[in-house]
């Protein structure tokens, strides 16, 4: 029997939180599961989710995701879910304890970075983040523009050599 070919996009990303990388310096990332109800997973398979303004908190030794917006399932009925309900994240006890120690001082927070499927299960990439100041953001913008100009100039020089 022939082997099945792997799909080009094996782990499709449902949603990314691009704003988090702009507002925070990501120190560490963790992959964790999430507890969902049936209509939520169906809505996610349609590619609908919004991570903006979402955050995670540790409460009584459990990690909870707040403000994740999963719109109602289009073909759902009275069994549809509440779009912005609090959802439980699934992590190992030692990971939760480690995160609890790092978040305790108040300078760091837990921010979801992206939602994606792995083997039919939804995963959340959770980032341990530290807030950026305005000058940090300006330095990042300056660095990106400098890199863009350098690559543009190198491209011009390479085209000049070839032509």
TrEMBL record:
Write out the GO cellular component annotations: cytosol
Family annotation (Gene3D superfamilies): 2.40.280.10
Principal location class: cytoplasm
| InterPro entries membership | SmpB, SsrA-bd_prot, SsrA-bd_prot_CS
- UniProt-listed PANTHER family: SSRA-BINDING PROTEIN, TMRNA-BINDING COMPONENT OF TRANS-TRANSLATION TAGGING COMPLEX
**Function comment:** Required for rescue of stalled ribosomes mediated by trans-translation. Binds to transfer-messenger RNA (tmRNA), required for stable association of tmRNA with ribosomes. tmRNA and SmpB together mimic tRNA shape, replacing the anticodon stem-loop with SmpB. tmRNA is encoded by the ssrA gene; the 2 termini fold to resemble tRNA(Ala) and it encodes a 'tag peptide', a short internal open reading frame. During trans-translation Ala-aminoacylated tmRNA acts like a tRNA, entering the A-site of stalled ribosomes, displacing the stalled mRNA.
Q: What is this protein called?
A: SsrA-binding protein
* Organism whose genome encodes this protein: Corynebacterium meridianum
The gene it comes from is smpB
């Amino acid at each position: 029997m022939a082997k099945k070919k792997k799909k080009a996009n094996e782990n499709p990303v449902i949603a990314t939180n691009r704003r988090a990388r702009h507002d925070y310096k990501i120190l560490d990332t963790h992959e964790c599961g999430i507890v969902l109800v049936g209509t939520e997973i169906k809505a996610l398979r349609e590619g609908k989710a919004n991570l903006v303004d979402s955050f995670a908190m540790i409460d009584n030794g459990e990690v909870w995701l707040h403000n994740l917006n999963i719109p109602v399932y289009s073909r759902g009925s009275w069994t549809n879910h509440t779009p912005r309900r609090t959802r439980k994240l699934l992590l190992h006890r030692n990971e939760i304890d480690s995160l609890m120690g790092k978040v305790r001082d108040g300078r760091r927070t837990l921010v979801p970075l992206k939602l994606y499927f792995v083997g039919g299960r939804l995963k959340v990439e959770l980032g341990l983040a530290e807030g950026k100041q305005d000058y940090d953001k300006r330095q990042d913008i300056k660095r990106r523009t400098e890199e863009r100009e350098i690559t543009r100039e190198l491209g011009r020089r390479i085209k000049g050599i070839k032509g």
